[in-house]
Task: structure prediction
Amino acid sequence: MIRVFLHYFFKIFFRCRIIGIENIPVAGGAIIASNHVSLFDPPVVGTAFTRSIHFMAKEELFAVPFIGWILKNLNAFPVRRATADRTAIRHAINLLENGELLGLFPEGTRSLTGKLGKPETGLAMIALKAGVPIIPTAVIGTNKVWKEGQLFPRFIVKFGNPIIVNQGKADKETMENLSTKIMQEISLLLEEKVNF
Result:
């Protein structure tokens, strides 16, 4: 119910436009890998399509009123940052192996400048261990709410072509190369002009 409400809320008030929805697999595990510029990003991405999605979110957010409630209703689960949270990583891999969608932010934290930061290798590691495709995703406009005189700026969500990942060893070089590839694809999506 909350997913449907938020979908139409973003569509009506923020004129949210969704591009590349055909790149979301209709079944099977996959990672939605998005840039991260606002607390709006998880609900905007998570309600852009009909399939259910799970998010890994820092555990502190679950204590924030309303945000925590939304995260729980979007099937989010907590991760302890600044540590290798094996429980959260194992849960993420299990979800993917069971055919679920998982939303992750490769930068590991929000960008305060709106520009892409350096990726962490955790997303690549999870993708390699589960052997699932990665859908590069760009979210635009969510960091402009109540800024620059815009109460309701336009939101855009772009889903790129899947990056096919075969299950294999998650060594440092492979993870770093895959992480770089993900960020390159997200960057291209951010740069593409959108015609309204």
Summary: The chain has a mean pLDDT of 92. Helices lie at 2-13, 41-46, 67-73, 86-97, 122-130, 172-191. Residues 16 and 155 are 5 Å apart (CA to CA).
